[in-house]
Design a protein that fits this description.
Length: about 110
Amino acid sequence: MMSPADNAALPSESEIREALRYVIDPEVGVNIVDLGLVYRVDVSPEMLEIDIAPTSPACPMGEVILDDAREVVDALTPASMAINIKLVWEPPWDPAMMTDAARRVLGWSDE
């Protein structure tokens, strides 16, 4: 059971998403947030749940991305908090999910 002091130390969804910007998809060299791969972040006092999509069903880097994500969020969460990060396949990722920043990095921007 967490104390009120522990609750005060819980990271917000936006803090988790900001930390996940340090996780780079090794195949494309862009962070997973800007790529649009982070589908869900749910923070509760007992658990942090994150759903991450691969860029394709054949993506060989899924486990690497999950390990990197766990490493960055471990630093933000209380030791007593369970962390569940998983790959999800639905809906399939689509390049339209990328931010403008990711499109520019990949040269997909009209600018």
